[in-house]
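haha ok so turns out i had the wrong file open the whole time. this is the CORRECT one, sorry everyone. sequence first:
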Amino acid sequence: MKRIDRYIASQVTQPMIIAFVAIAILMISGMLQQQVKELLEEIPFAPLRVDDFVWMALYALPMMVGMIIPITYLFGLMLTYERMSRYREIVAMVAGGIPMSRIAMPTIALSALLSVVCFIVQDYFQPWAFQRLMKLARHDLPLRLTLDLLPTGKMSDYGDLKIYIQKRNEKKELLNIVVLQPGREGKVIAFYAEKARWKKEGDKSILEMTNGFWIESQEDSREILRGSFQRLEKEIPPLKPLDTIKLRTGMSLRELLREHKKLSERYEETKGLPLLSDLKKYRSEIAERLSFPIMCLAIGLIASPIGVRMRGAGPSYAFSAGFLIAFLYFILHKAVGGGGLMSLPIRCLVQQIPNLLFAMIGLVLLAKVDRV
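then structure:
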């Protein structure tokens, strides 16, 4: 790598990092709101801490890198060439015998490198981050829940139990508590206590109740058993984590291909419509995993020759040109993303149309960039 290559690459990296941080914060904020909303629908009183939001944000980042890096690189590239043109650096390079096509090569090479980075992040770090996010949201958080965190004045689910707490006093005692416990053979046991206190004894959760009674129903008879107590210690069954959600987002390309093969074999045997729908989703996911990383290279090929020819047009022109390139790319991506069920190779080829089209236009522009 020559000095000019290092210089241009370093100049592109600085605005790219700034744009990456800004866009990542905005996208992660929106994603966190959605994740917390879905979590609270399943665990209305989830014991979330500040560090949980930090970890969720870090786990969410690899899932968006494939989209954030190409866009931020595009604007970093355009702004860098605009600044170099405005300060006559490109004119000086051309006067020194360096053709414009050579000036554009460092950003094209960097875009190819970023395409490899995007693929690695999507195929290795994204599945890992998704699994860690699921562990936090569906395993760690549910197991943190204690009786002290249950809301008052309403019936709440706590594992297999239903618990009602009227209020808490200053000593953190649970007042007028009702516990409904399902039993065997359809029986239900209800406990009522004037006061109760939750405590831990080793790995066990104990609810210590005072001044209360219990009622047990009988499914096969109208008899109801009753009893009272002055003090009763009841062991609360341990909570269970929520079922893990298996999504295509959390799968590597190899896993997607393996699952696609299984679905294809099952569909050939049964011709079931649900399998047909799943096949289409898997093929679209595989095609996007292959097309999105190459987006960096396609955008670099078309933006680099446009950038070196801006001739000091100003930041607004650079930003507008970058926005137009990104807009056209995503319009094409959206246009080829639909359609019926295609075979996997055809689906992958169709998904590459925006990349192929942008790359062809970029190569033509690169070949003509030195012409007046």
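Residues 160-236 form one domain.
again sry for the mixup
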